[in-house]
Design a protein that fits this description.
Number of domains: 2
Structural class: alpha/beta
CATH architecture of the largest domain: Alpha-Beta Barrel
Number of strands: 10
Order of helices and strands: EHEHEHEHEHHEHHEHEHHEEH
Largest sheet: 8 strands, parallel, barrel
Low-confidence stretches: 1-9
CATH superfamily of the largest domain: Phosphoenolpyruvate-binding domains
CATH topology of the largest domain: TIM Barrel
Amino acid sequence: MSLPDASEFSAPLRSVLYMPASNPRAMAKARTLPCDAVALDLEDAVAPEAKAQARAALIEEACAGGFGHRRLIARVNAIGTPWGGEDIAALATAPIEALLVPKVDSEFDIAALSETMDAAGYAANVPLWVMIETPRAVLAIERIAAMAGSTRLAGFVLGLNDLAKDTGMVQAPGRAVFLPVLVQVVLAARANGLILLDGVCNAIDDVARLEGECAQARDLGFDGKTLIHPAQIDTANRVFAPDPAELDEARAIVAAFADPANAGKGALKVQGKMAELLHRDIAARLIARAEAIAARAQ
């Protein structure tokens, strides 16, 4: 494995904040917040009677620009709703960085959505992200993820609220009952090179619960977390950033393998621990991620 280039981490996604496209003030505020990405929402946050107006407002805001380092995501309505098809068609030429589609159930949905984006005229570099939030999607997760090589699919966003509604599973603190789902989604995403974002924490005022969910998702391998309130951004940014102690250890490992005295060695003792080449590669990725985050803060 070659050492990663920092460009792999040029766009960290620690914090992805949903903002309703029906609320002009919220969309304007998004331009000032320290989140890594903004997901302008046409689905859950918008009442049926406001869908068309919100769609037009989203396109206007996207075309106006000014989101800086924040990646701009558009979450549309599900394709089976009265608005989904119109959403996808209308956003084809909008300057968004990803199209997020809810309520997918199978690999066939991925193929159909990708073909729909192609037919609508989306630029080749606009990827498809999908919400994993139905029992069918979880059961088909391996087949869905495998579509990444032949379609626009590039990211998964977990949706535990809908999954809880459809299954009766309880979202208690710690999310223990959801651990099998979380692990399945992580393995499928990582086996196919997909971006992976955790679902929202509904407890806006419970900072400890948010921190616990962020730490759990980070330890499981998620890239970041979707958020529903600006007050949650700082916690997500901090938890999903490399820990200073881990970063010091990573730098020591990379430096040890770069030392000419250790040329050709596949394993070294670094700070009292055995480090192999795979640990060097993991360390290099951690350093690159930290550098990308630091560059964003400048």
